[in-house]
């Protein structure tokens, strides 16, 4: 299937709907200075510039997730994340613009107690749109907390729609399967053929969706994800579940066994949410050479991995590579004391 129309129609006829949060393609450009430096054409898909709520990859997932919430006649959306979750911020903002009440359950999972981490960055935007924020400890009680919160609202006659961490499930992953059509249209317009794509992974939805999208388009692409979670297996499992779930919707069961999942754990650093010196150096370098700001939690680590792997010869010399910039700009301000 090569046409976006066909993709959209197939989903609608199978009961998967989408609301329109994004009205324009995000920019796809070459990083000229870096391409010269590494002697390889490197392009960037600026999903950090998607048009709502200071941008980010979660908006593509929310197009499908919030459509499902509407179809279920929910009035309230609950989601969960780390205190500086970009996903929580975009759920709050997109949710509000679509008329939902929004509750964010924010786990204290990153051991940073600076004022900027606790109050700045995404939190400022969460508060501007009046999301209900619930701070909880990182002790495994999140599910119980969410179930109690849901019951509380339901006894008041409300209808709650829950979005899992990162918006990563089969429905959310559809957003990134769809994004591969946007990428291919832009690549064609630029006269480039991407056979290598690199991206950050944190909960598997972006990675799983991109893999599924290229399977649906029947194009062989080497997709390299750089994990930001020290624990690799659960992310790999989730990624497969999402890819396979989407392939099922498109009746591509026989493709499943052929897929290679590439999830690299070499650039995680010491923990989720903690950048290391390399991460910070990468952020500074891209900002100074290209004017592009990566974030310290996801894209700073993934881009470090990409550049290092190019230097190690893991990507074929001279072939164009696309890095998907998944966002996190607002989160950068929570790390003000690191720069
Ligand atoms: C959530 C997020 C990711 C990871 O995407 P997943 O689909 O959760 O793997 C990458 N980059 C940024 C900036 C994010 O906010």
Automatic annotation (TrEMBL):
- Show the GO MF annotations: D-cysteine desulfhydrase activity
What this protein needs as a cofactor is: pyridoxal 5'-phosphate
Task: Give residue numbers for the modification (N6-(pyridoxal phosphate)lysine).
Answer: 58
For this UniProt record, give its keywords in alphabetical order, as a comma-separated list: Lyase, Pyridoxal phosphate
Record's keyword annotation contains Lyase? yes
EC category name: lyase
E.C. number: 4.4.1.15
Q: Where is the active site?
A: 85
**Lyase among the record's keywords?**
yes
Concerning InterPro entries, the annotation shows: ACCD_DCysDesulf, D-Cys_desShydrase, TrpB-like_PALP, TrpB-like_PALP_sf
Sequence ranges assigned to domain Tryptophan synthase beta chain-like PALP in this UniProt record: 23-327
* PANTHER family listed in its UniProt record: 1-AMINOCYCLOPROPANE-1-CARBOXYLATE DEAMINASE-RELATED
Family, according to the entry, reads as follows: Belongs to the ACC deaminase/D-cysteine desulfhydrase family.
Q: What is this protein called?
A: D-cysteine desulfhydrase
Q: What is the lineage of its organism?
A: Bacteria, Pseudomonadati, Bacteroidota, Sphingobacteriia, Sphingobacteriales
């Amino acid at each position: 299937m090569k046409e976006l129309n066909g993709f959209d129609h197939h989903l609608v006829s199978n009961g998967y709907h989408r609301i329109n949060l994004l009205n324009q393609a995000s920019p796809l450009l070459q990083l000229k200075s870096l391409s010269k430096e590494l002697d390889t054409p490197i392009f960037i898909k600026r999903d950090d510039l998607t048009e709502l709520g200071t941008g980010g990859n979660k908006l593509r997932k929310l197009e499908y997730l919030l459509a499902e919430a509407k179809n279920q006649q929910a009035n309230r959306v609950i989601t969960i994340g780390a205190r500086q979750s970009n996903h929580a911020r975009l759920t709050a903002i997109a949710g509000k613009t679509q008329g939902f009440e929004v509750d964010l359950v924010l786990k204290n999972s990153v051991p940073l107690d600076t004022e900027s981490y606790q109050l700045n960055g995404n939190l400022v935007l969460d508060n501007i749109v009046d999301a209900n924020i619930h701070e909880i400890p990182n002790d495994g009680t999140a599910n119980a907390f969410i179930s109690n919160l849901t019951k509380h609202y339901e006894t008041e006659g409300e209808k709650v729609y829950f979005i899992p961490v990162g918006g990563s499930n089969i429905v959310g992953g559809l957003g990134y399967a769809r994004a591969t059509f946007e990428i291919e249209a832009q690549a064609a317009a630029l006269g480039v053929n991407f056979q290598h794509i690199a991206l950050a992974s944190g909960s598997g939805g972006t990675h799983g969706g991109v893999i599924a999208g290229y399977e649906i388009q029947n194009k062989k692409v080497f997709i390299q994800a750089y994990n930001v979670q020290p624990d690799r297996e659960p992310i790999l499992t989730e990624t497969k579940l999402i890819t396979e779930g989407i392939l099922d919707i498109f009746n591509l069961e026989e493709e499943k066994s052929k897929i290679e999942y590439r999830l690299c754990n070499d650039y995680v650093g010491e923990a989720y949410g903690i950048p290391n010196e390399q991460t910070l150096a990468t952020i500074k370098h891209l900002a100074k050479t290209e004017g592009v700001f990566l974030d310290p939690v996801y894209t700073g680590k993934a881009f470090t991995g990409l550049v290092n792997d190019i230097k190690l010869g893991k990507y074929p010399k001279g072939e164009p590579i696309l890095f998907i910039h998944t966002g996190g700009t607002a989160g950068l301000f929570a790390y003000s004391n690191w720069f």
